[in-house]
Design a protein that fits this description.
It is found in: Cell membrane. Its main location: membrane. Belongs to the binding-protein-dependent transport system permease family. Keywords: Cell membrane, Membrane, Transmembrane, Transmembrane helix, Transport. With about 325 residues, the chain is mainly alpha-helical. It folds into 2 domains: about 70 residues, no CATH class; about 220 residues, MetI-like fold. The longest helix is centred in the C-terminal third of the chain and has 39 residues. The two termini are about 15 Å apart. The C terminus is likely disordered.
């Protein structure tokens, strides 16, 4: 219980610091928000400028502005978009489901293929299969996601016509179908990390005492791998998969832009290009919160999956 309280307290402190950094970065960004709020230069009268500054608290010190923004964010109020003239929370609510569907799809692909290839490489360690898997996944990870996405669109969408060129589908199976290429693009770039951690963790388990004892009992090798080697390797594997999935939220920026998906990532790009500061702040805060929630949840649940972690924490 004390470990959970410490983790949640650290999460809260990190969130406060991260939110202040995000707000301060936007505060220090070049350009006057009043210019984007008023728009038409003919309306840039001293009275209009003063009115807009008072309305958006731009005439107050930075700490006061941060307090208005942070206190509003706690209740889900991130202000109004400069570009869309709508509450930022409504814009995010419309975009988040698409991004979460994309990340969830990519996470499934990553876990299945990443762990599967890592297991195969560990079982075939030192053989050509191992070399091919390590080399192939490393090569895939070295390709930037936007380059890989463009290549997949050109081949499978334009040339073969198997998938739509852009969009996220209308929902259900259509959304799953439309997000296939983007999800593969998002997953492939992280495949090498998960497969390599899986391989290394399993190789270390192969030489452990409990695995040798299982072999000595005459247990078939496939059961040794499944019940002893892989089971003892889950801690590092799950931790790495969680870290990669958490970082995928930020990775959607390039993927959603390439595939024309109206998600949080493409919203961030549009907001930066149009100097829509409230939207930029809200999206960045969402990405930070999503990363922290995933990593903290795994950190709290991991001792349940691997009791050895809890024992090491207590002994330390």
């Amino acid at each position: 219980m004390s470990h959970a309280i410490r983790k949640l307290g650290g999460m809260l402190l990190t969130l406060i610091v991260a939110s202040f950094i995000i707000f301060a970065a936007m505060f220090a960004a070049p350009g006057d928000p009043v210019t984007f709020l008023i728009g038409n230069p003919e309306n840039m009268t001293p009275e209009r400028i003063a009115s807009v500054r008072a309305q958006y608290h731009l005439d107050e010190p930075m700490l006061a502005q941060y307090w208005h923004w942070a206190s509003g964010a706690l209740t889900g109020d991130f202000g109004r978009s400069f570009q869309y003239h709508q509450p930022v929370s409504q814009i995010l609510a419309a975009r988040i489901p698409v991004t979460l569907a994309l990340v969830g799809y990519a996470a499934v692909l990553l876990a299945v293929f990443g762990i599967g290839l890592g297991v195969l490489a560990a079982v075939r360690r030192g053989r050509p299969t191992d070399t091919v898997i390590v080399g192939g996944t490393t090569l895939a990870a070295s390709i930037p996601s936007f380059v890989l996405g463009i290549a997949l669109v050109a081949l499978f969408a334009v040339q073969l016509g198997w998938f739509p060129v852009a969009g996220a589908g209308s929902g259900g199976l259509d959304r799953l179908y439309a997000l296939t290429l983007p999800a593969f693009t998002l997953a492939i770039t992280a495949l090498a990390i998960v497969s390599r951690v899986t391989r290394q963790s399993m190789i270390e388990q192969f030489s452990s005492e409990h695995v040798e004892a299982a072999r000595a009992t005459g247990l078939a090798e496939r059961f040794v791998v499944r019940d002893h080697v892989l089971r003892g390797s889950w801690g590092p594997i799950i931790t790495m998969v969680a870290l990669v999935i958490a970082s995928m939220i930020a990775g959607t920026v390039a993927v959603e832009t390439v595939f024309g998906i109206s998600g949080v990532g493409s919203l961030l790009v549009d907001a930066i290009n149009t100097h829509d500061f409230p939207v930029v702040q809200a999206v960045l805060l969402f990405m930070v919160v999503a990363y922290m929630v995933v990593t903290t949840a795994v950190d709290l649940l991991l001792p349940m999956l691997d009791p050895r972690i809890n024992r090491r924490a207590v002994s330390a």
